[in-house]
Structures are given as structure tokens and as C-alpha cells.
Amino acid sequence: MRVMDMKAPIKVYMTKKLLGVKPSTSVQEASRLMMEFDVGSLVVINDDGNVVGFFTKSDIIRRVIVPGLPYDIPVERIMTRNLITANVNTPLGEVLRKMAEHRIKHILIEEEGKIVGIFTLSDLLEASRRRLETAISAE
Amino acid sequence: MRVMDMKAPIKVYMTKKLLGVKPSTSVQEASRLMMEFDVGSLVVINDDGNVVGFFTKSDIIRRVIVPGLPYDIPVERIMTRNLITANVNTPLGEVLRKMAEHRIKHILIEEEGKIVGIFTLSDLLEASRRRLETAISAE
Questions:
Q1: Reported pTM
Q2: What ipTM was reported for this prediction?
Q3: A104 and B CB contact within 8 Å
Q4: CATH classification of A4-138 is 3.10.580.10, yes or no?
Q5: How many C-beta atoms surround the C-beta of residue A128 within 10 A?
Q6: Measured between beta carbons, which residues in chain A are less than 8 angstroms from residue B99?
Q7: Can you give the residue ranges of every domain in chain B?
Q8: Cβ distance A115 to A18 under 8 Å?
Q9: B104 at the A interface (CB within 8 A)?
Q10: pLDDT string in tens for chain B (139-residue length)
């Protein structure tokens, strides 16, 4: 149980399994993908391969179900364009602070301006478990 | 950064802010409540005051949007009846292991057979942050 962990760069804990859809993909199709791949968020990628948006399950519920919009609207209508990111070398502790401050459960990780991964609260659970097991085996 | 934390009973970290709806509440109304109170799950309570079900944002997406059902179906049609719970005195580490094993982000906490709280990955984020701040102030 080392203080080190919180100082380790986020690249140690992030996942590179970043799923992307086109801006024109329907909310229903995107939902199907999220369930199939067991992810809580998707990035939206344009024809040039750039990340132009991001959305979570909360965004679908807030922007589709609550206002009662149809399931076939394109994801570009519900995506967040203002991406909150952290650099790959940012310490875990600082990333957690940023997530808590913005009340977000997923944060995109960038390296030299390119999105290269994502860190989610599920990754935090995984990191906590690994730390726990290390602690137990060291007892 | 004490090993103790993982051994502390979950009641230290759980939240008692448990929001309930009736089995007849519509998915759309439940979604509105989730967004208003910033929670990722709701318990379903019958007229006798017993918890009869539970559902998360994922359940809404998986069981309403993906199959294309209308927003006004009652939550009892999408709720999970088989509740996964942990006792209030279960150590945090064991609860995390159970959550990871079942791949769940929310777990109901019971005391003498009654649901008294919930522990979510957002609570884990909060606990990690508190631990981080303790570690920094001890440096």
C-alpha cells in the first residue's frame, strides 16, 4: 500500500480500449455497442480520424430519454464537444481530483494532443483491487 | 495510506442517500429523478416499504433503448429482482472484490436484512481522494 500509487502516471492505469463511433451513428446503435463491449462511454470520430466528441450513458439518459427524443437521432446531437482530458504523465491522484471536481466518471487521456486512452472509475476499482492484493500478499 | 482502509467496514464509505421509486413509475420519470439527484441507480419500493428491485443507467440503456421500448413503461419491467448486497460490516476490500467479480458499479448495503445504504464507484473515488489528501498532509 504505497503512497507511490497515487503519484504513478495515469498511463499505468488507463485503458487503451477506446471505442469510437461516427457522428452519424444512431443513439440506439451506439447503445447496443456500449452494452456489447461493456463500456460506459464512446468517443465520436470524424472522417479525418479526429476525436470530435464524447458521450456517456448519462448523456444518453439526460439528452434522449428525459426530453423524450427518438432513439434514432445521431450521436452528434447528444455528444459533448468540450472534452475534459488529462495528459498520460499526470499522476493518478491528480486525475482523481480532476474527476471529482468535474463530477465525471470517465476522463480521456491525451499524449501530444492525441487521445490515446481513457481512465474510468472501473479502472480505479481494478487499481484498488490490485493494490489490495499486493497488500495482502505482503502481509 | 494505511492498509486499514481496505479493512474498514463498508458502512464508513457507503452513502445513505438511497433514492426509491414505485414499481409503477415510468422509465422516463425515473430517468429525470436520476439526473436531478445525480445518482446512477434507484431502488424500487413496494407499498409495504420493501425494496423489491434495483436498476442502474445501464439497465435502462440495455432494456429500453437497445430493444426500442417506449419511455413510459414502468420500472418494474426493467428492474433487477435478484439484489446483490453486502452487510454493513463487510470490509471495503471484500466489497470491492465482490463488485469486480460481478462487474457491478453499485452495491446495496444491508443490515439485519434491511437495505440501509448503497456503495458506488463514485464513493470509491471519494474515499480514494480522502486517502490521498491524508497522505499528502502527512508528508
A1: 0.87
A2: 0.85
A3: no
A4: yes
A5: 23
A6: 125
A7: 4-138
A8: yes
A9: no
A10: 443 478 899 999 999 888 999 999 999 999 999 999 999 999 999 999 999 999 999 999 999 999 999 999 999 999 999 999 999 999 999 999 999 999 899 999 999 999 999 999 988 888 877 766 665 555 4
